[in-house]
Structure formats: structure tokens, C-alpha cells
Amino acid sequence: MACFERESPALKEILMKLYRAEKPMEVDHHLHEFGAVEYHVQASASGPPYIYLSISTPLLYQESMLSSGLPRYTLEMVKRICPDVAEIIEPPKERYQLTLRLDYWRIPHNKDGLKMIASISSIQGVILSSQLKDMLMNVNSLEVSQGMYRPIKLIYHPREPFFVIKQPEKITAVFPMRFKEATDVIIATAFFQELMDMGSSKAFAKAPHCIWSPIPPPELRGEPIEDLSTNGGFVSFDITARHVEGKRLDKTVWNLLNFYAFVKYHVKSTRGFIQRRMRMRLDALVEVLHKAGIEDEHQTGKKGRGSKGKRKLLTFSKSKLLKKRYNFIDKIKRIRYRIKIHWFSRFRKRWLSFPRFSSLKSYERLN
């Protein structure tokens, strides 16, 4: 996600190192940013106390590139950056669009000096934003009043171009939205619809009018098909003269240049929030199921232990009863063996003996 920063962190670090040095340093450093922006910082320890800063950056609008270098309005904006310290060198260094000579001995060692270093490190942002400022300031130009307008393709990032269309009394900025994942398209579409609803409310009546459409607007007819092939639709903002008055111009320019980064940041944050909530919900459900499983095992264990105890109780009672029964029989036997009746055996043999009967089938042979 490329964000259009006002200050270059790497360039600011190099300038701060030279600024805080107690004596002049020998520096010859090449710096690349975003793959297309190149800086060259050069300083001599034995020569005059100057730092030569050269920059090469792609312009938003390639047709605005003149044979002499940067557009006039851009050069005027650059001259306003620390005029007592920075000076434009003509012609610029070979292969670079702009070369500045910085007299770092004139930079005070206080808070004002730190602000100057920050302003110098934002040179690339000044070059790019100056072109868009120049377009937005010419809202009521003769070309627009005569109806001779056409879309102007502005490229800050190779994969994120947008169009500026000059119309009577307004300038329309159109952003073709492209996303890699289908989930990002869904989140972004919901965000664009909410943005339109909020923009049409009374609370945001002074904000630029926002329109989202899944198809290209009529103003982009005739543009190359690769610029109109999107999966997230087209977002348009109507910029009027009220939005470019005074300090509003700078704010409007930076909001347009960072619109892609803002949308991608919103999509990324929303996706992370949804994933976080889903993970928390999943953990809660797993915890509930885990507790339910523990309770089921506890209940099952109780039932198993109860039935086993019952079986043990019944088995113990039965064995005990049998044991008592056998003990009773043994007692009876012992009692029987202990009691003796005289002449009882003779009496049993004589009176309690059963008579023997002959078989019914037996017969005697007759002579």
C-alpha cells in the first residue's frame, strides 16, 4: 500500500546526519524510493559548505513535461521551499529533473532548522502535488468555458492511475478501483455505498459530492480498455471552487493523492476486524463445546460409577445371603450330629423301614 507522504524518511535521515555533523562531511549517496523516485545527495568536505540535492521523479501528467524541465508552476513552488537556504541550479544534473544547492551553514540549530530540513525532504511531494494544484486552480479557464475538455490521466503509482476531468464550474476526479481478492471487493463496495450515503446527508453538505458506479462514467468514453477494466467500480468526486479556496487547496490535493491508500487501509483494517471477531467467536464456541463435553463425561462417569456400585451391592448381598444359608445348614448338621437318641437306630430299622414289593411283571413258571 503506497502512501503519498509529504516527507521522504530516508532523505530526511541523510540531511539530518549532515545537519548535526560538527564538521563538513564527504557524501555521495544515491537513494531510490518506490522504484521510480531517485535522489542524489552530494557534498564535499574540503569545498564550499554546500549540499547538492538532485531528484528524478515521474510526473503525474506526462504531457506537462516541458523541454526546459519542470513546469513553471512547479518551479515556483520549489523556490518557496527555504528560499534563504535552497537555490535551483540550471541546468540540472544529467539524468535528473531538478538540482538544488543547499547552504547548510545558514540552517539554524534550533526548531526552525528542523522544520527547514523537513521542508527540503518533502521536495518530491511538492513536485507531484504542484501539478494537481495547478489543474484544480484553473476551474474557470477559457478552455473549460468553451466545453473543450477531456480526461487527464494522472499516475502516481503505476497500478493506481486516476483521471481529472475539467467541466464547467467543477472538476471531477474519477478513481478506477481494483482489488486482488473478492473479499476486498465486497468490503470496498459497502464502504463506497456508505460514503455516498454520508456525503448526501446535511452534515456533509459542504464536502465534495461522491458518486460510486460499477460501470465507467460517461466522461471516460474513449479511454483505453485496460484503464476501464476494474472489479471495484469507479468512485468520482466533484471539486468546486469552494474546495480549492485558500488552505483548502492543499488539503484537497493531499486527500485526492492518498485516496487509494485510504481505501486500502480501510479494507485491510475491516478485514482484520472481521477475522478477529470470527476468531473470538470461534474460541467462544469451542469453549462452550469443551465445557459441554466435560459435563457429559462427568455425568457418564457418575452413571457408570452408580451402576457399578449397585452391582457390587447386589452381589455382596447375594453372597452374604448364601453364606448365611450355608452357615445355617452347617449349624443344623452340627446340631444333628450332637444330638443322640438311644435305641433310635434299632427303632428306625424295625419300624421305619420300607417294605419291598415284588415286581408286577415277575411270574412263576408252572409245571
UniProtKB/TrEMBL annotation:
One GO term describing the cellular component: cytoskeleton
Keywords: Actin-binding, Cytoplasm, Cytoskeleton
Top-rank taxon, per record: Eukaryota
Protein localization: Cytoplasm, Cytoskeleton
GO molecular function term, any single one: actin binding
Matching SUPFAM superfamilies: Arp2/3 complex subunits (SSF69645)
Cited function: Functions as actin-binding component of the Arp2/3 complex which is involved in regulation of actin polymerization and together with an activating nucleation-promoting factor (NPF) mediates the formation of branched actin networks.
Similarity annotation: Belongs to the ARPC2 family.
Record text on subunit structure and interactions: Component of the Arp2/3 complex.
Name of this chain's protein: Arp2/3 complex 34 kDa subunit
Gene source species: Cinchona calisaya
